[in-house]
Amino acid sequence: MQVTPEGPTFTATARRAQIVAATIDTLAELGYGQTTFARIAERAGLSSTRLISYHFAGKAELMSTVVSEIYGTMGRFMGERMAGRADARSLLRVYITALVEFIAGHQPQMQALMSIFLNHHDPDDGGRSYDAGDDRDAIGHVEAILRQGQADGEFRDFDTFVMAATIQRSLDGLPFLLQTRPGLDLDRYARELVTTFDLATRAPAR
Fold first, then answer.
1. Fold for the domain defined by 1-56
2. Domain segments of the chain: what residues?
3. Which helix (H) or strand (E) holds 8?
4. pTM score
5. pLDDT tens-digit profile, the chain (206 residues)
6. N or C: which end of the chain has fewer CB within 10 A?
7. Domain 67-201, what architecture?
């Protein structure tokens, strides 16, 4: 890749972003098996697959970049929604509703992510299809909210890891549900999850 002393050129950065966007759309529409450099180049309007190879060493690097891009977008979205929330009950409520909102508004990205996780195995990374650290981070973030709520007396006593994993899995499974229930009412889904976990975590009235 062409770089300057400060990093990639504007043109190179824009081209990489174009390729990543085309990869996401191709994964979402055709699935992992059909997402070849040729199809990505066609969708991106590139004259040759060599333009992809110039920016990415191979499919593994491209898929890793797609995952990082989606997680980065998700992280910024969630950060904006949760900013300024102090009490744990509000934080948990906004975490659930914001993540459902992100999934609802970024379905191609979530389909692409799901396709990569189910099908991509990087031999240079022990054959793993995803970074387990991202999963630990997500559960750890929810667990921190739960621990705060317990410390502040908002939440009852429970195993914070088990509860955090249960909450996160109910959200992680949503893209899969949308494959079989594309008309699922996501606003209602979010409300039901908020109610369920509010009742499951809140401290008893004194």
1. Arc Repressor Mutant, subunit A (1.10.10)
2. 1-56, 67-201
3. strand 7-8
4. 0.82
5. 444 444 567 788 888 999 999 999 999 999 998 999 999 999 999 988 999 999 998 888 999 999 999 999 999 999 999 998 889 999 999 999 999 999 999 999 999 998 898 887 655 554 455 555 566 788 999 999 999 999 999 999 999 999 999 999 999 999 989 888 989 999 999 999 999 999 999 998 77
6. C
7. Orthogonal Bundle (1.10)
